[in-house]
Amino acid sequence: MFLLDSLVSSYLDDHDTDPHMSMARGVKFKSSYHEQQYLFTVNLEVAVWQAMYPNGVVIGSSAKANFPPNQAHKNRQTVGYGNLYFFFDRANITKAFAPNRGLTEEEAYYSQMYMGGGAGEFYQSVTTVNFDYSGSGDNGNEYEHNPYAFNAKMAKHDMTDGWDLPPNCYMEGETFFGIPLSRSSGSNLMSTVTFQEQFDFEILADRNFTYMQAFGTNHGWLVGEAVGNGAGSIVDKDTAHIPLFYTGTTNVDMGGMALADMVRIAKNIEFGTLYIKPAFVFQDDDASLKLQFEADANSALGYLYDNLCKEIGIAWNYDMPYNDFGIYTNCAMHAAGDRAIYGCGPDNANSGGFCPQMTLAYRVGFQSDDHAAAYFEMANNYVDYWRAKYPSGVAVGTSKFCPDGGCLGLFLNRFDLFEAYKPDLGGSWVMYNGGTFAPTISPAPTHQGGCKNPENHHLDRCFRKTHPRRSSSAALWRRLGSIGRFSVLLILFMTSTLSVSVFLARAKKRKRKGESYTRFFLRELKRKNRKSKSRSSNSVKSVKSKSSKGRKKKVGKRLDEAMLDTDNPATGEYVPPSADKKRARSSSMSKSSSTRQSRSRSRSRSTAVEGQGRERSHS
Fold this sequence. Notes:
This protein has about 625 residues and is an alpha+beta fold. Helix content is about 35%, strand content about 15%. The strands form six sheets. The chain has a five-stranded antiparallel beta sheet, covered by helices on one side. The protein has a three-stranded antiparallel beta sheet with strand order 10-11-12, with helices on one face. The chain has a two-stranded antiparallel ribbon with strand order 1-2. A hairpin with a 5-residue loop joins β10 (about 280-285) and β11 (about 290-295). The model is unreliable at about 1-5, about 155-160, about 230-235, about 435-445, about 550-565, about 570-575, about 600-610 and about 610-619 (pLDDT under 50).
């Protein structure tokens, strides 16, 4: 018999003490003062929880969920309380193990107290923190934010370390412009759309740990998914892409640029078809495996990078961005004065941020130096094959996504492509939410109360409940506007009143004495039914008579033709008709002569009558 109880101790940087729950990684505070204020605020919340649950609490919920998350409409089950869960990875629970007994009355009271509204008195009574949460922090000062330590090297995004943000930017963000390269897989946990068919990056992933020993993070390989791979227990969504220009947060109040403004900028930047060509695989200073692509400053990719820096780059070293919309951001990861010709710095003695790279995995540890060398030899052999296959580079795409190749993408984060843009201002289309679970399954800022809480209305699951899909007729009715809808209703009302008035006038004229309007209406319906039946029968008879006449005419025509055909088809000489034909011909001639005689007699009689009439009139 078991139940999983949870007793909260404190909120601090606990140096990997167990049990614990990771809230965030690589957090940088603005200063040590801000750190102290934050830790006091969150630990005061923990003190409230300790007062609410003096002996711990059985965690759980009465809601329904599905394990695993695929086919949510088929395998939903009640979550329950005190369960043990198997996590396939940090984002997916694939199995729930229920306890072998239910909750006692006291356990049920504490488990449901917060949702039942019984926590208010504890928030009012607890005003101090009665436990020690000191010991948090770092030995150095790297946990403090220093905006003026920003340089071009920080124009890369490592999701595990954090970074120093540019001046006047107070919130990190993950939006960027780049080239999507991910492909779909057979995984039912986190599926993606295929954006290119030119490269298969799966061959660069060491899923069986032939060369590598461990990951320094729990992200695993970023270039694909795998199912049924026991050694590679970490499975992540395929996020293969080439980040070109980081735009940072979309929170305008924190120094960023609104997403709608990013879309306006992207739709008005003219760029050519984006060709890419792999160069080599390497491991950077953070132990991340990356695939470098050729960085040609004179290419369409370099031209696009220059224009993004000029229009929405951050102000740095007296270089100011400019665009026709007057829209700018303080959180872009590249300066306004940066250019593709400066290269990718500063490690390669260049000073720019033009680094077309694709991250394969974060913090990869190899078994030995020899294993690392063997891996890079294997990976770069494939790169050489791609370079030979595409000597001038290739514009990636598929028959369904960017069929002409060379498109640009605006990413909300490394998981979700929001919008795609065709070269030469060829148009754009939204890709977001086509096949992702975010933010309902991926970690998201959710609140208690489910979809009834207004704080959760932005979530996909809640949005679908409050905004059911409308039919095409409903959408058309909505687009008519108030005046259009009023006009349609007015026409329907006038039509109905006209029909009623016509019926009443007809009924008043034709109904029988003492007959009601209802009986007259039913009698008219029966009469119309009888008329329609008689008309249909008459039409059938006329069709039959016409068909019989047509057949007779056709037969007569064939007989006339036979009578006139008196030439021998073989010799072309005249052949006299037979006796039967002569009789038929003579009979027909006698009939025609008799008709002529009768017509002449009728004419003579009519002329004689007319002459007598004229003589009488003269007399």
